[in-house]
Amino acid sequence: VFFGSWGSANVPIPWKEVETKLFALNVVSEVVLQEGQAFDFSVIMQLVAVLSASRSEELKGFMHIVYRSLADVIGSYSKWISAFQTNARPLLLFLAAGISEAVSSNACASALRKICEDASALIDEPSNLEILMWIGEALEKRHLPLEDEEEVVGAISLILGSVSNKELKNNLLARLLSSSYEAIGKLIDGDNNHSLIHNPATYTQILSSATRGLYRMGTVFSHLPVPLPTNPAGDDPIFALLRVFWPMLEKLFRSEHMENGNLSTAACRALSLAIQSSGI
Fold first, then answer.
1. By the 8 A CB rule, do 4 and 20 touch?
2. Residue-wise pLDDT tens digits, 31-65
3. pTM of the prediction?
4. Which end of the chain, N or C, is less surrounded by CB atoms within 10 Å?
5. Where is the signal peptide (predicted)?
């Protein structure tokens, strides 16, 4: 699909031609995967390296389209591309950067989910886990569309759920949800209620953050494995999360904030998914 000498440092990369071929490669992905046609994905990793090394001012305009098309290809061929341990870290860093850009956020979020589904054993490495935590901890500031955020949180939760060390797993889940706890805590803090009522702009912002926090918590619950009946309840990470989440949820359901439709929908969703995931 790709040819020519653009891989040389002395030859400019014809980005429009590259984007066209990336688009075509993505369109025929289903056929290629079904037929098991051999393809050298080293060129894809070369593009990942080039774009990841580019300065932010270089990734403007049409280059955002190239970034998105490359993320689409990574998602479509995730099983093949992620089959090699050495690809995991550069792929995660590439997708992490693309998630923060409006044009490529959806493609990168979707590709991240597929990579995490197809290569969970390869990503379950300390350095890769830290990249995932960096992505997750930045969500509060990025304000992604909810569907993109759900893809990202679901991908991270899937990997964290496979971590064998229970103490590490609990610590990482707590880090992932710390901003959610904080956002909900600000809303249900009795000392803040009076001041919030008299500051509509601040109240709207806190309400939005709490709603997103509830969606993130629900998504985490939905992607963690259901506890085995034979395991002690205290050892399972879901019950560790519930010990923090349940009192907050009880206080939230008794509050007047539940009159807000978006918040109440997110809270009921989180409650339902928490119950399902706990196996109760």
1. no
2. 888 887 767 788 899 999 999 988 777 778 899 99
3. 0.88
4. C
5. none
Q: Which amino acid, one-letter code, is at 234?
A: G
Q: Which two tokens stand for residue 49?
A: 């390296």
